[in-house]
Specification:
homodimer; Rossmann fold; alpha/beta; three-stranded mixed sheet
Chain lengths: ~290, ~290
């Protein structure tokens, strides 16, 4: 499975998840890759070709494209079609969908917690969603039938499904995903600034910790700009909490407050074993990478 | 190779790196592990047994133990013995060594950039230093002969050796290692605080980014308290730079400053490919962990 542009799925067959897959993609380089890799899917040149034929439409574009695509799709959409997306923040998208989508069609948002710092058709993996969470968004306007069918779709490709409101989603992921990405970008930026100020060649010593952050900071910039902008209130609050805690650490360090710093370092250590226990990460030192 | 307590090396043989290895270890549990794993090394009960017989002494203890150990070792030390350590910050240790070590013996500091979030004899690996940097510290008082012999030792066990002053070392690693660790601890702490305030069960969604930070934040707390305290001035300055940059990111996000944020996100991305090119990390998406 891989995500690029818009994927339309025709689900006639009972045995397979999809009978036909249509792909609408702007990037010529991505289209060339899809063809070269012989990925299953028919590339359509006009949006309506995919929209009219499909039972399930999955938008896999930056969130800043939603409005534009909704306006283009509106006249072709059928009321029975399930429409979803895989964006990483939900409340702002929900507002855009409510404002611009034709009133007689429904959109049920998804957020599969899967993927890595690379993107594009060549980085797809058949088991990318296997045992990974997929959050489905439930609002007042959500159709129970669509939610249930969409849940079945994600479960069939391996996901564990959980349902929540867009408000709760955006709060949780502001801390577990959006802040970590921002912090990683910010740490790498600070290292670059320091390198310039000091005129030291320091990246070659990055194995001491910095390299971990550089992976996340190599993620797609358009995708992350959209996430940061769309979830700005929660992220802003998360930054404030982070800075408050960092200043407290700084105070402990400068005053050599042994008791206070050890309490923090011991407490945070517990989260790793919880994450391993919940099978959210590999149970090997150093991610098993060496 | 594995580090625990103090390692003394007798280097009579020309063919092997060490003829005999003596280990002085306080922890009964570690001693039991060393015996169970049949690791090469003779456990000595009294410090002087190892000190007197060895050509090379490697302190692999938390840096807060140096003063105490120096005072205990002083009367047994021979002037010809090369003494080193593997501590992660150097200027403060250098001051302690200068103040308490007997004046007719020499200590040449090492810092191998290797290891992971786990510690103890069971986590040793034969190739842990292979192609990893080892920083040797050169000061006015450093004996050229000791520096050269110590460099040969590290190279023989696979390291790439680089020599620098303690001042330069502590500046570089405040950014490439100490700040990343502090930031990781602080992010996990902030997630824990948020979980309490919101009463959300959010750790199970950590695959979105948080889990990466939890690995580093699972590192040994005594070791890291000592590093933070010993390099507090550089770390404090690094925190200030980090917070300044984070506030700038926050401003970009709140004002949706597209140009400014994209410039930052694109610029930071470059560091990852530099790190991969310098072979400081594995060249696979997601550290190859899935």
């Amino acid at each position: 499975m891989w995500f690029v542009g818009i994927i339309f799925i025709e689900t006639n067959s009972k045995k397979k998840i999809a009978n036909k897959i249509y792909i609408y993609e702007k990037s010529k380089s991505c289209i060339a890759k899809i063809k070269r890799l012989k990925l299953p899917g028919i590339i359509v040149k006009r949006l309506e070709e995919g929209v009219k034929k499909s039972d399930l439409i999955i938008l896999c574009t930056p969130m800043s494209e939603y409005k534009n695509l909704i306006l283009k799709m509106n006249k072709f959409l059928l009321t029975k079609t399930i429409i979803t997306d895989v964006g990483s923040s939900k409340l702002e998208s929900s507002k855009i969908i409510k404002k611009f989508l034709r009133k007689d069609v429904c959109w049920t948002q998804s957020h599969p917690i899967a993927g890595s710092e690379v993107s594009g058709p060549e980085h797809g993996k058949h088991d990318i969603f296997e045992k990974k969470w997929c959050v489905l968004i439930k609002e007042k306007s959500t159709k129970k039938k669509h939610l249930s069918m969409l849940g079945n779709f994600w479960r069939k490709i391996g996901s564990k499904v959980v349902v929540m409101t867009p408000e709760k989603h955006d709060k949780i992921f502001s801390i577990t995903s959006h802040l970590p990405h921002l912090i990683a970008y910010n740490l790498v930026k600070s290292a670059q600034d320091f390198e310039k100020i000091q005129n030291f060649d320091l990246i070659k010593y990055s194995a001491g910790g910095l390299r971990d952050f550089s992976r996340i900071a190599a993620s797609n910039e358009i995708m992350w700009r959209d996430i940061f902008f769309n979830n700005k209130q929660n992220i802003s609050r998360a930054i404030d909490l982070f800075i408050k805690n960092l200043n407290s650490f700084k105070k402990d360090i400068n005053s050599k407050n042994n008791k206070s710093i050890l309490k923090k370092l011991i407490q945070t250590k517990k989260v790793r074993s919880k994450i391993i226990k919940l099978k959210q990460d590999i149970n090997k030192p150093d991610f098993g990478r060496n």
